[in-house]
Amino acid sequence: MTLTRAELAQLVDHTLLAPTATHADVRALAEEAAALGTYSICVSPSMLPLGFDAGVKVATVCGFPSGKHTPAAKAFEAAESVRNGADEVDMVIDVGALKEGDAAHTEAEIRAVREAAPSPTVLKVIIESAALTDDEIVAACRAAEAAGADFVKTSTGFHPAGGASAHAVALMRETVGDRLGVKASGGVRDWAAAQAMVDAGASRLGLSGTAAVLDGGTSEGY
């Protein structure tokens, strides 16, 4: 499916997760998101509540970026973010636990966050696909679905193993079918990469250099 500029924009979570981000930066992000026609903005939990109408959906992160937080801590963070106005929560799993073969822990921590942030809050599960084997990607996706998540997501964009790949997106889509969304994030820096992710099965994209991508250039961001 060849996307138009407006169609691609509507798949984007326009993202600002830099530790140095200020409230003024977030306001500028929201203004840019509205002008570009993106689906949402994605900001750190400390930026909530926004204190203004973003004009788009508001997403935040949980257990970010390492995922090395207890399920209870992740659940508390997610619940607080929802109280502060988040429409969507992107949680990071404990990748090490999954790599140890403990998919039951992965499912349990996702379920804890799901219970703390029930529907209609959209829950996306970041699995750090670049750090996983294919079998581990499948196990993570199955755990996310079993625990009631709405999306599986490739990456934080902060992991040294890298970000999204078309292979990982395709495998995630094959695993969850049309039952969950698939979000590609991390390293999607131009139109061709964005289109490749959508062709592989992504239904949402995490971008920080959204304007450059939509204009056909190359982003230096997330």
Element order: H for helix, E for strand: HEHEEHEHHEHEHEHEH
The tally of helices reads 9
Low-confidence stretches: none
Which CATH class applies here?
A: Alpha Beta
Estimated helix fraction:
40-55%
Tell me the fraction of residues in β-strands, as a range: 15-25%
CATH H level, superfamily name: Aldolase class I
The overall number of domains is: 1
Total beta-strand segments: 8
CATH topology name, in short, is TIM Barrel
Strand arrangement, largest sheet? 1-2-3-4-5-6-7-8
Nearest-angstrom radius of gyration? 16 Å
Explain this structure.
This protein is an alpha/beta fold. It has one domain (8-214): TIM Barrel. Helices cover 41% and strands 17% of the residues. The chain contains nine helices and eight strands. The protein has helices spanning 5-9, 23-36, 71-83, 95-99, 103-116, 134-146, 166-176, 191-200, 210-214; strands at residues 12-16, 40-43, 57-62, 88-92, 122-126, 151-153, 181-185, 204-207. An eight-stranded parallel barrel has the order 1-2-3-4-5-6-7-8, surrounded by six helices. The radius of gyration is 16 Å and the shape is globular. The model has no long low-confidence stretch (mean pLDDT 96). Its EC number is 4.1.2.4.
